[in-house]
Design brief:
A: alpha+beta, Rossmann fold, eight-stranded antiparallel beta sheet, five-stranded parallel beta sheet, 15 helices, 27% strand, globular, B: mainly beta, four-stranded antiparallel beta sheet, 8% helix, elongated
């Protein structure tokens, strides 16, 4: 059943990104906006924009019933959730299903199973995919100490319902474990309404690698290579690239196989990302979690494969199958994405909303900008701070880095302070160029040297 | 006792999981009505009361200045200039607009009718949840700007009331 009219339940650059592909495919579009987003690029691009509610997300973008009602009342037959907001809430997928609207994403039960880290780990282990050596739920400090001794310090405690680094802490000794255990459980309870914790061996030198997959829901899965998202601050990705050049070819192949094996076992439907922790010292990887949505960093995979992942999402959602075989997906070149956030990297990354007073984005060979911003755009204070993603492609990593530096230098963006200067600093840093960074590099070494 | 939005959500979930056709809950002057029939309305209009009605807008229903209609919204009935002293009653969220408590019943209000600030003047439906919208101002209904059963957007003008 082909999709005739698509409801886009998101805002910002991803709304624009989805609208662009939908228009290209001749699909009519309706965008649900908050009152703060009436005058945006997305609202202009969509065939129709409807105002859901006030600026406050809880009364607009985060209200499941409101969003689905709007989709239904405007005659849409499918809904794309983008990323963030309700994208990984099983209730959105379920409500769409019940209302007879195609949800462009996984089945509700898949989202549910992948959303809980412990259940996702169980699926991985059933599928024969290796996870970080760790434990099941840990209820008491005594159990925690015994488990840590068995796994070997340092260990990391994580909230079962957690994500984005919240509810996590590292312990190098039994004393540290004791000091943080109670608090972590309380924090998890407060943040997620679920105080359950589990423990994992802590990988001293790690990189974050992930595999982009798309499944047809019947067990057929293709992958679009891997991405390296090791440049992070507080578990938030800042720079993403494809391929992960630091991973040797034979390991990369196993990485792809693991991602396909897991999602094929889960009969995963639509686009997803299988995240792994890559252990630099052991030259091995462990499954972390599955993100059951399109991700912010999907463009780097598109750039090296030449495929349109949003188009594929819509195709699979329409029940038309994958329409592409693994051997038809070719990867060439190197792509890097930097997130342009309205934050002041010179001032503790404080949010910097405001109006864009000068705007002249870079162009040129291998340069792509995914954004909803433009001259005069007001970065609202109500939502996440990302105002765009600058993506560059080159024949290899060196060329991509050179193009990235050139593109940043040629990017005129005045008004809100942004993370662009930090991106340029990182891209020019010898540790980044030599690709010898880890997930802790930015906070431990990169940032202390920035701005001096 | 206070009813939180979460309680309502739970109630709706329970209702949806059940095989009931309708559910009425009345407590502390609040009235909750759930139905599997999208056309169903409250069998009888609850007696006007000062107690807060569940789902009543928490925002002042009257905007100081009528907000600009969204680009896509097309007020079906309203036309012409509106005297500066008329107050716009706007939609607290997107939803489907109903003038009457149930199909075939008399509308909540007609043009020329006197209303108090807490007079219910229409219903907004979101996924079978009906929210009563109150006039928010004492005066005379001068204009009805939306057709029955039309979708309205947040901030869209539903009525104009000439303050008394």
């Amino acid at each position: 059943m082909a999709i005739k009219r698509l409801f886009v339940a998101n805002r910002g650059e991803i709304a624009v990104r989805i609208l662009r592909t939908a228009k290209k495919l001749g699909i009519e579009t309706v965008l649900g906006v908050s009152a703060a987003d009436r005058e945006t690029l997305g609202a202009e691009m969509a065939d129709r924009a409807v105002v859901l509610g006030p600026a406050q997300s809880s009364r607009s973008y985060l209200d499941v019933n409101l969003v689905v009602h709007a989709a239904k009342a405007t005659g849409c037959d499918a809904l794309h959730p983008g990323y963030g907001f309700l994208s990984e809430k099983p209730i959105l997928a379920k409500t769409c299903e019940d209302a007879g609207i195609i949800f462009v994403g996984p089945r509700p039960d898949t989202i549910e199973a992948m959303g809980d880290k412990l259940s996702a780990r169980a699926i991985a282990s059933d599928a024969g995919v290796q996870t970080v050596p760790g434990t099941d739920h840990i209820a008491t400090i005594e159990d925690a100490k015994a488990a840590a001794t068995k796994l070997g310090f340092p260990v990391v405690m994580k909230a079962s319902a957690g994500g984005g680094g919240r509810g996590m802490f590292k312990a190098a000794t039994a004393e540290e474990l004791e000091a943080s255990f109670e608090r972590a459980s309380r924090e998890a309870e407060a943040a997620f309404g679920d105080g359950r914790l589990y423990m994992e061996r802590f990988v001293e030198r790690a990189r974050h690698v992930e595999v982009q997959i798309v499944g047809d829901g019947e067990g057929n899965v293709v992958h679009f290579g891997e991405r390296d998202c090791t440049v992070q601050r507080r578990y938030q990705k800042l720079i993403e690239e494809a391929p992960a050049s630091a991973v040797p070819d034979h390991v990369r192949k196993r990485l792809h196989e693991a991602a396909v094996k897991l999602t094929s076992y889960a009969k995963y439907r639509n686009a997803g990302t299988v995240e792994f922790l890559y252990d630099v010292d052991r030259v091995d990887f462990y499954f972390i979690e599955v993100n059951s949505r399109i991700q912010v960093e999907h463009p780097v995979s598109e750039e090296i494969t030449g495929e349109d992942l949003i188009a594929l999402q819509l195709r699979v959602a329409a029940g038309e199958g994958l329409g592409i075989r693994q051997d038809q997906i070719r990867m060439a070149g190197h792509a890097i994405e930097v997130r342009v956030n309205a934050e002041d990297p010179f001032n503790g990354f404080s949010p910097a909303p405001g109006r864009v007073t000068a705007w002249s984005p870079p162009s040129g060979e291998g340069v792509r900008l995914d954004t909803h911003a433009r001259q005069g755009y007001l970065v609202p204070p109500f939502y996440d701070s990302m105002i765009g993603k600058l993506i560059v492609r080159g024949k290899d990593r060196d060329e991509a880095i050179a193009r990235l530096l050139k593109a940043i230098a040629g990017f005129t963006l005045e008004g809100p302070r942004t993370t662009l200067p930090l991106a340029a600093y990182i891209a020019a840093h010898p540790d980044f160029r030599d690709n010898r960074i880890t997930t802790r590099w930015l906070e431990d070494k990169g940032l202390p040297g920035f701005g001096h | 006792m206070t009813i939180k939005p979460q309680d309502i959500a739970t109630l709706v979930e329970l209702f949806e999981a059940s095989n009931w056709d309708e559910l009425h809950v009345q407590l502390d002057g609040m009235h909750i009505f759930l139905s599997t029939d999208p056309n169903a309305r409250l069998a009888s209009t609850p007696a006007p009361t000062a107690a807060p009605q569940v789902f009543a807008t928490t925002q002042p229903a009257v905007a100081a200045t009528p907000p600009a209609a969204a680009k896509a919204s097309a007020p079906a009935v309203s036309s012409g200039d509106v005297p500066a002293n008329w107050a716009a009653v706007t939609a607290p969220n997107l939803g489907t607009f109903y003038r009457a408590p149930k199909p075939g019943a008399a509308p909540f209000v007609e043009i020329g009718q006197m209303v108090d600030a807490d007079t219910e003047i229409c219903l907004l439906e979101v996924m079978k949840l009906f929210t009563a919208v109150r006039a928010g101002v004492k005066g005379t209904v001068r204009r009805i700007c939306v057709n029955d059963a039309d979708m309205v957007e947040f901030g869209q003008t539903l009525f104009y009331v000439e303050p008394a």
